[in-house]
Amino acid sequence: MQKAIIVGATSGIGKSLALLLADNGYKVGITGRRKNLLAELHTERPYSFYSLTIDATANHLEENLQVLTEQLGGLDLLIFSAGIGELNNDLNIDLELPTIDVNVKAFNKVVIWAYHYFEEQKGGQIAVISSIAGLRGGAIAPAYNASKAYQINYLEGLRQKTKQQKLAISITDARPGFVDTAMAKAEKKFWMATPEKAALQIFNAIKAKKNVIYITKRWQIIAFLLKMIPRFLYERM
Ligand SMILES: NC(=O)c1ccc[n+]([C@@H]2O[C@H](COP(=O)([O-])OP(=O)(O)OC[C@H]3O[C@@H](n4cnc5c(N)ncnc54)[C@H](OP(=O)(O)O)[C@@H]3O)[C@@H](O)[C@H]2O)c1
Questions:
Q1: Whose CA is nearest to atom 24 of ligand 1?
Q2: What are phi and psi of 173, to 5 degrees?
Q3: Do 132 and 177 touch, CB atoms closer than 8 A?
Q4: Which of 1, 22, 93, 190 is deepest in the core (most CB within 10 A)?
């Protein structure tokens, strides 16, 4: 039986992924800060889920991941779906720093922990829900875009490292456009996917050991266009 941990499983994409993994025979360690939502989710697949309340920005993050892994009896897949981001037109530093705490520092701790675990085990899979927002800077939520750029760049570095070390660790970077969750905060939204559809495409990408995917697939077109826009033009948009 395959074993997975999802950091950020209490709602949205992480929750849909948890249910999908359970329905595909995985034992799943579900985590997040909201105890009540974790308890509710646990009742949906009580024989598949192992839950642990984890604030990814708090102390003992790695110890908690270890505890959950022991409860599962091992680990094959670690998914980092935790994320926050605020619209910050007034450039308030108090809105920017928490985003860095979750999307950069906690992300970093979790993927390094997972990398070393899988290095020792000689195999495993890491999947992170980054964002199309990480492809360019963004005036509306600068820390969010920058934090997602950090994730994208970091995962590329890790992929390079697995090749250098000849390690069988697959690293999937899933980059959604808009998914219908609390995180879809922009005023103008389009091509919005349901969390269930997003989760299915991410699950298929994990099974296929894909490096990078866009959620949904047509967001590849936006990604291509975003990367093509020259800087002098982009900065005036
Ligand atoms: N929805 C979109 O349009 C969209 C687009 C691009 C990328 N994404 C990315 O997709 C990922 C999942 O977001 P979502 O759309 O599914 O939104 P969501 O429903 O708000 O899910 C966010 C998850 O992150 C967890 N989380 C936040 N802070 C945490 C912390 N300190 N410790 C542990 N868990 C924490 C939340 O759990 P607790 O609150 O219970 O801790 C929740 O389970 C995020 O990284 C987001 O940036 C979303």
A1: 82
A2: -110, 105
A3: yes
A4: 22
Q: What is the DSSP letter of 172?
A: E
How many angstroms does the Cα of residue 125 sit away from the middle of ligand 1?
20
In this predicted model, what pLDDT tens digit does every residue of 46-90 receive, in sequence order?
Answer: 999 999 999 999 999 999 999 999 999 999 999 999 999 999 999
- Measured in angstroms, how far is the CA atom of residue 108 from the centroid of ligand 1? 15
DSSP 8-70: S-SSHHHHHHHHHHHHTT-EEEEEES-HHHHHHHHHHSTTTEEEEE--TTSTTHHHHHHHHHH
Positive or negative CA dihedral for 224, 178, 106, 116?
negative
pTM equals 0.98
pLDDT digits (tens, 9 = 90+) for 106-163: 999 999 999 999 999 999 999 999 999 999 999 999 999 999 999 999 999 999 999 9
Domain that holds residue 114: 3-234
Whether 34 is in the pocket of ligand 1, judged by its Cβ within 6 Å, is yes
Chain segment 191-211, per-residue pLDDT in tens? 999 999 999 999 999 999 999
Alpha-carbon distance values, 16 to 11, 20, 53, 83, 222 (Å): 8, 6, 18, 15, 25
Query: What CATH number did the domain enclosing 130 receive?
Result: 3.40.50.720
Number of domains in the chain: 1
Q: Chain centroid to CA 100: how far?
A: 14
